[in-house]
Amino acid sequence: MQCHGDLKLKSGSPHYQTAIYNFQAKHPEFAPLRNDARDPGTIKLNHAVHMRAGLLGPNSQPIQMQCQDCHRTPAEQGEPWKYGQTRMVEAALHTQDPHNPAMPPESVRPGTGRAYMAAPTYASACQSCHALQFDSHFSESVPHDKPEVVHQFIVAKLTEYIKQHPEAVNAAPRPTRIMFGGTISREPQTVKIASSADEWVKLRTADAENLLWHKTCQQCHSLKYTQTDQNGLAGLPEVAPSNIKPVWLPNSVFSHYAHVSIDCKSCHTRTLTSQETADVLIPSIKTCQECHNGEPTKIGQAQNGCFLCHQYHNWKQRNEPFTPTHNLQELRGATPSQSPVLGAIANRLCLCGSRFENISCGKNFPALFPDGKSATMRSQTSAL
């Protein structure tokens, strides 16, 4: 490559590769896979368990989950889940996950809404199997929200219930343990009979929150207690941010939509065996190089020009005014040697042709420059 094949520094030490000839030669491994990088996400997820054959689904029937059941693009997040969402409130799909930041905008290239995968949310991927039930008096779940919201929801539900069923104050406590999947089971607890409606609500709230904070929520989340109530007891916990990274290679452009015909696991090969959240599951550069070897005329092969993944430096920092200096007729009818304007344009083009979206390093320039008038242009713009 004319520029990045041998970059020279005036001073200091480089923090990037200074000699990259093409995607196959001396291009470094992707940054997240160098130096044993770890996923910063805090959600406790075992991919191997979820991809296991015969896993019980929401209706207690064996299923075989696929990657796209949980990992979907923003354009597909509102579509029904094939295993059913019997407990899902449809509006929850369009509500930002309180434990994870919003999805960043797509790249500057024209977007389809299907380039990057949206971070999985409880409402769109987890709720049907992992119900957040809290008390045997109710079939519904608590909202997947901040502990303060959950606490208010529980108190409101129990307060309303005891108003309608005052006889429950003197009734023996029901079992409050709710097992994986929402099945109610008996759990040994300290049995205490309430003497008033207010005390009944307080006791049932404590039981429900003990179940949620110390079992249900901790199956996936990391909780921390930093405050105490007026009795010196632990107050509501803090939930660690999910830190799910929607984009792992921020200095590049990638589209899952362009690879839609390829099975996810053929690239994300570690998925079936990954047991830790910290595992980085993006493909190695070696996986990409198997197809992107610069021979698109062969079956199963693809182009490997720099512009496929990289923008030309950082166009967002350019601030010169947009002033047209030529027209299409001039471009089609004159060579750089015949037109000073065209010659100047040719010199300003990115050497690998990336100024033109989805054009392969001069190979497609004849579409703009008729045969016999494009050789000079191609020689000035091709670098691979």
What do you see in this structure?
This protein is mainly alpha-helical. The protein has a domain at about 305-315 and about 325-380. About 20% of the residues lie in helices and about 5% in strands. The protein is built from nine helices and six strands. It has helices at about 45-50, 120-125, 145-165, 195-215, 265, 285-290, 330-335, 340-350, 375-380; strands at about 55, 60-65, 175-180, 185, 225, 240. Strands 1-2 form a two-stranded antiparallel ribbon. A hairpin with a 5-residue loop joins strand 1 (about 55) and strand 2 (about 60-65). The longest helix is centred in the middle third of the chain and has 20 residues, at about 195-215. It is elongated, with a radius of gyration of 29 Å. The N and C termini lie close together (about 5 Å).
Please provide a brief summary of the model:
The protein is mainly alpha-helical and 384 residues long. Helix content is 21%, strand content 3%.
* N- to C-terminal distance: 6 Å
> How large is the share of residues in beta strands?
under 5%
Question: What is the string of SSEs from the N terminus onward?
Answer: HEEHHEEHEEHHHHH
Q: What is the number of strand segments? A: 6
Helix content: 10-25%
Order of strands in the sheet with the most strands? 1-2
Q: Report mean pLDDT, rounded to a whole number.
A: 73
Low-confidence blocks of residues: 86-96, 101-110, 177-188, 344-384
SSE class: mainly alpha
> With helices defined by DSSP (H or I, 4 residues minimum), what is the helix count?
9
Radius of gyration: 29 Å
Name the shape in a single word: elongated
The largest pleated sheet is described as: 2 strands, antiparallel
